[in-house]
C-alpha cells in the first residue's frame, strides 16, 4: 500500500509599494508645500498649509468652510510626471 500526501502552500507575492508623490509628508515648503498645489472652485473654502493639526511631524494640508454649498469644491493635488504602474 502506497500513501502519498502532497501539501501545497501558496503565498501571494508581496509587491513593493511605490510612492509617486513628491514631498508626500508635506513637511517641505513655506506658504505652500513644495510640489503641491490647491484649488478652490468659488473661493468658499479656506485652503491652508497648517501646523495646527498635523499628523506627521509638523505640517498638514487643511480644507475648511463655514458654508456647505454642494456645487463648490476644493482640493490639494500634485501632477505626477512619471509612468503610473498598472496592476
Topology:
Elements: E1 37-40, E2 46-50, E3 60-64, E4 74-77
Antiparallel strand pairs: 1-4, 2-3
Please tell me about this protein's structure:
By secondary structure, the protein is mainly beta. It has a domain at 19-66. Helix content is 0%, strand content 21%. It contains no helices and four strands. 3% of the residues are buried.
Please summarize what this structure is:
Helix content is 0%, strand content 21%.
Write down the overall mean pLDDT.
78
Number of strands: 4
Assembly state (oligomeric): single chain
Give the number of helices. 0
Radius of gyration: 23 Å
Shape: globular
Q: Give the class from helix and strand content and strand pairing.
A: mainly beta
Numbering strands along the chain, what is their spatial order in the largest sheet? 1-4
Low-confidence stretches: none
Order of helices and strands: EEEE
Percent of residues in beta strands: 15-25%
- Please bin the fraction of helical residues: under 10%
- Main pleated sheet: 2 strands, antiparallel
Distance between the termini: 48 Å
Amino acid at each position: 500500500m502506497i500513501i502519498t500526501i502532497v501539501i501545497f502552500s501558496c503565498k501571494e507575492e508581496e509587491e513593493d509599494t511605490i510612492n509617486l508623490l513628491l514631498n508626500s509628508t508635506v513637511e517641505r515648503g513655506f506658504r505652500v508645500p513644495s510640489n503641491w498645489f490647491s484649488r478652490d472652485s468659488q473661493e468658499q473654502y479656506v485652503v491652508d498649509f497648517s501646523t495646527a493639526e498635523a499628523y506627521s511631524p509638523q505640517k498638514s494640508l487643511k480644507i475648511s468652510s463655514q458654508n456647505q454649498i454642494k456645487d463648490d469644491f476644493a482640493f490639494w493635488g500634485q501632477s505626477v510626471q512619471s509612468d503610473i504602474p498598472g496592476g
